[in-house]
Design a protein that fits this description.
By secondary structure, the chain is an alpha/beta fold. It folds into two domains: 6-175, Rossmann fold; 195-355, Rossmann fold (3-Layer(aba) Sandwich), CATH 3.40.50. The chain contains twelve helices and 13 strands. The relative contact order is 0.13.
C-alpha cells in the first residue's frame, strides 16, 4: 500500500539537551500525529534525546565536534544524510525562535533554506512558528532578517516586539504565543502545593554575578518559607548550566533551606513539577512559560535584548508586565517577594492563559490545514 501521509521536516534547537525546546517538540509531534501527518526531526546531538522520545522519526546525522551551532550541524546533516537517503518532504516547519539574534545565525539558516530545495517536493511549504525575531542591531542585520523570513509562506511570532520588527521590514506575521502552550490544560481545582521552582540559566560572562545570584535565591527562599525544587534545563553533568544549578542547590542546603535538585527521566515527569508549583523563579525562558501556563506566580531574570524581548513579551501576553522581570545586575529580594505575594496581580493571568492557548491551537489548526494540502 502506498503511504499517502504528508511528510514534514521539523527544524529547531531540540535534541540539544534543552528541556524547553524538547518540551515544545514533544507536543508539536503529538499534535501532528493526531492529524495523520508524518513528522521527521534531525538528530544533531552527540548523545541522545534525554528529554525526547525514542519513537520519533529521527534522521540520524554525523556529530561534528567542531560545530557548536545547531543550524550548521543541520546543514551538514542535510548534505551527508538527507541528500544520499533520497528522503523528500512536503513541508518544512522551523520551530522555536533563536535563529535571528545574531547575523551569523540568519546567514546559516538562509543557507539551510537554499539547500532545502534538494530534499523538498515541488510545492514545499516553509513555515516559521514560535519565532522571536532579532534584535536587529544594524541595517545589515535587518537586511538578513528580511531575506530570511521573505522565504516563509507563514510566519507566527510569540510576542509583539518580533511582529513590530517584521512589519517594519514589510513582512506580515501573526502573534500567537509560545508553542509550549499546546500543552495547556483547563484550570485545575486542585490547590497549589506550597513549593517553588528555581531554574538558573547560565549566560556567557555572568559567572561574576554567581555569588550575588545565589544570595538572591537564598534570601528569597527564606522569605517564601517553602520547599524549593531546583530544575536545570540541561541534563549533562559537565554542562555549565547543570553544574550551576547543582551548586545553587548545595548553597541553599548549607543555608538550612529545604532544597532538592531534580533530574527526572522525561517531559511528563518534569511537567508534573510545574503543574503543581506555587512559584517559579528563573532565568530559563521556558521555566517562566511553564510556570505561567500552570498558574504559578512567576519572577523572571534575564540578560540582553533577545531575552528581554522574550521574557517581557510572554509576561505581557499573560497580562503582566516588566515589574515581573529583572536583570542579573539589578536583583532585589524585597521587590521580588512583594510581587510573588501579590495574589491580585496574577488573577488575570488565568483568563489570558486560556486565550493564548486557544490562539496557539488555532495556529496549529491552520498549519495542519496547510500541511495536508
Amino acid at each position: 500500500m502506498v503511504n499517502l501521509m504528508k511528510r514534514v521536516l521539523l527544524l529547531g534547537a531540540y535534541g540539544l539537551d534543552n528541556l524547553g525546546d524538547d518540551f515544545m517538540l514533544a507536543h508539536i509531534i503529538e499534535r501532528l500525529k493526531q492529524s495523520d501527518i508524518e513528522p521527521w526531526i534531525v538528530n544533531t546531538y552527540k548523545n541522545r534525546f534525554y528529554f525526547g522520545n525514542k519513537d520519533y522519526n529521527i534522521l540520524k546525522c554525523p556529530y561534528f565536534t567542531k560545530e557548536s551551532n545547531y543550524v550548521m550541524k543541520a546543514i551538514k546533516c542535510l548534505i551527508y544524510t538527507l541528500l544520499p537517503s533520497k528522503e523528500r518532504f512536503d513541508s518544512v516547519v522551523f520551530i522555536g525562535g533563536g535563529y535571528t539574534n545574531e547575523e551569523k545565525g540568519v546567514k546559516d539558516i538562509f543557507r539551510f533554506l537554499t539547500l532545502l530545495k534538494h530534499v523538498c517536493t515541488k510545492d514545499c511549504f516553509i513555515i516559521f512558528t514560535g519565532q522571536t525575531v532579532g534584535p536587529a542591531s544594524s541595517d545589515k542585520m535587518k537586511e538578513a532578517i528580511s531575506k530570511l523570513y521573505g522565504k516563509g509562506h507563514r510566519i507566527y511570532v510569540r510576542e509583539k516586539y518580533s511582529q513590530e520588527l517584521l512589519k517594519s521590514l514589510g513582512i506580515n506575521s501573526k502573534i500567537t504565543g509560545d508553542d509550549a502552550l499546546l500543552a495547556t490544560k483547563a484550570n485545575s481545582q486542585i490547590s497549589k502545593e506550597n513549593y517553588a521552582i528555581f531554574s538558573y540559566k547560565e549566560f556567557p560572562g555572568y559567572s561574576k554575578y554567581k555569588n550575588k545570584i545565589f544570595e538572591f535565591y537564598g534570601e528569597l527562599a527564606k522569605k517564601l518559607c517553602c520547599k524549593i525544587y531546583i530544575i536545570p534545563f540541561r541534563s549533562e553533568e559537565h554542562d555549565a548550566e547543570y553544574l550551576s544549578n547543582s551548586e545553587l542547590n548545595d548553597y541553599l542546603l548549607t543555608k538550612g533551606i529545604d532544597s532538592e535538585f531534580v533530574m527526572e527521566r522525561g517531559i511528563n515527569e518534569f511537567e508534573v513539577y510545574f503543574r503543581n508549583a506555587k512559584y517559579v523563579i528563573g532565568s530559563a525562558y521556558h521555566s517562566i512559560v511553564l510556570g505561567l501556563m500552570n498558574d504559578a506566580r512567576v519572577y523572571a531574570i534575564y540578560s540582553g535584548e533577545y531575552y528581554r524581548a522574550k521574557m517581557n513579551g510572554v509576561l505581557e501576553m499573560f497580562g503582566l508586565d516588566s515589574f515581573n522581570t529583572t536583570t542579573f545586575d539589578n536583583l532585589d529580594v524585597e521587590r521580588a517577594f512583594s510581587i510573588l505575594k501579590d495574589a491580585d496581580l496574577y488573577q488575570k493571568c488565568t483568563k489570558n492563559k486560556m486565550n493564548m492557548a486557544k490562539s496557539v491551537d488555532e495556529e496549529w489548526k491552520n498549519i495542519i490545514e496547510i500541511l495536508m494540502k
